[in-house]
Amino acid sequence: MSHHPIEPVPAHEPPYYAAVFTSIWTDDDGEGNGYGETAERMEELVQDIPGYLGMDQAHTPGGLSITVGYFRDADALKEWRDNVEHRAAQQRGRAEWYERYTLHVAKVERSQGFKRERD
Amino acid sequence: MSHHPIEPVPAHEPPYYAAVFTSIWTDDDGEGNGYGETAERMEELVQDIPGYLGMDQAHTPGGLSITVGYFRDADALKEWRDNVEHRAAQQRGRAEWYERYTLHVAKVERSQGFKRERD
Fold first, then answer.
1. A58:B56 CB<8 A
2. Which end of chain A has less neighbouring CB within 10 Å, N or C?
3. A58 and B65 in contact by Cβ < 8 A?
4. Cα(A109)–Cα(A37) distance, rounded to whole angstroms?
């Protein structure tokens, strides 16, 4: 369902914003209910937001799903929040796809990365 | 590996902190390398930190793992960061368990939750 390469979004220079979205799906495999297509479309669409820095996603089968979107500043985040197609997807999410969710919008104050050295 | 019930940590009253830890493991199933035991121990230990609000975790098999820890304030976060056993686990993580990781420490400015209504 995801086209992201398997590597986490790197640490950027603070400050920047992280939007942490944690959810439980009504239909865990998400097949046939349009979720997958919409998620792909949103991943495409968010790339066009100036100040979009990247996205991390993980989903435990049968369990929790976490998506973290990173944005340079509050304006970028607001532009994504106000996007018409994104708003329609959020509404459909509440109507169909999500059993529950939490959104935490946070300003990153500190970040660090690690990459294993290989011979 | 996890003892958390399948529900996301609820929205708390801002401000609070979210520590977003995204990682790729060297050994994806994590069996037999001590990762699982250490992760369980850390989940136990963090409960004792005053101001600890909860933790969300998701892991895509063969892919990304995301852990988000929530803390009431910077002091709570610092106490967890400085915990001796936690520091030893972090060191072992860099030596053995993680291919790469990123940590984003962020102050939550806004949060919201959704729960599906059932008849």
1. no
2. C
3. yes
4. 34
Q: How far is CA B39 from CA A59, B57, B76, B85, B99, in A?
A: 18, 11, 19, 12, 16
The set of residues, in sequence order, having a beta carbon less than 8 Å from that of A53 and lying 6+ positions away, is: A9, A12, A16, A70, A71, A72
The ipTM (two decimal places) reads: 0.92
A106 contacts B18? CB cut-off 8 A: yes
Domain B16-108 has CATH 3.30.70.2970: no
Task: Please judge whether B8 and A23 are an interchain contact, meaning their C-beta atoms are less than 8 angstroms apart.
Answer: yes
* B66-116 tens-digit pLDDT: 999 999 999 999 999 999 999 999 999 999 999 999 999 999 999 999 999
CA distances from B7 to A24, A36, A54, B11 (A): 7, 21, 25, 12
pLDDT in tens, B12-52: 999 999 999 999 999 876 566 888 899 999 999 999 999 99
Q: Domain segments of chain A: what residues?
A: 16-108
List the structure tokens of A110: 């500190």
Largest Cα span, chain A: 51
Comparing CB atoms, the residue among B59, B106, B115 nearest residue A109 is B106
- The pairing of beta strand B98-115 with beta strand B16-25: antiparallel
